[in-house]
Design brief:
The protein is built from four helices and two strands, in the order H-H-H-E-E-H. The chain is mostly helical and about 90 residues long. Strands 1-2 form a two-stranded antiparallel sheet. It is globular.
Length: about 90
């Protein structure tokens, strides 16, 4: 049976944020909100601010992810936002 594709809601984005900063793995987050792990990984990239949390995880902003998703849905792909330069160094990307 094929998996039904579900749109990520703002409530799901908030849950992703809570679990991500608590240290949960992508697979655990996906299971909790009922989507594929690839969907969560894509969502984390969509909401990536360009900053890194202490410990090395990318900073996820659910409001940013929501705004970008709305722009894409409306047919207005977002302009690529270049991550800020921190202390003269480019941010580390995984």
């Amino acid at each position: 049976m094929s998996e039904v594709k579900r749109a990520i809601t703002d409530a799901m984005r908030q849950r992703i944020y809570e679990m991500w900063i608590a240290g949960y793995k992508v697979a655990n987050i996906a299971a909790d909100i009922g989507v594929n792990a690839h969907t969560v990984k894509s969502e984390l990239e969509r909401g990536y601010t360009g900053d890194i949390y202490i410990g090395g995880r990318k900073v996820y902003d659910p409001d940013r992810a929501s705004a970008i998703a709305k722009m894409v849905k409306a047919g207005r792909p977002p302009v690529r936002i270049v991550p800020p330069v921190v202390l003269g160094k480019e941010p580390h990307h995984d």
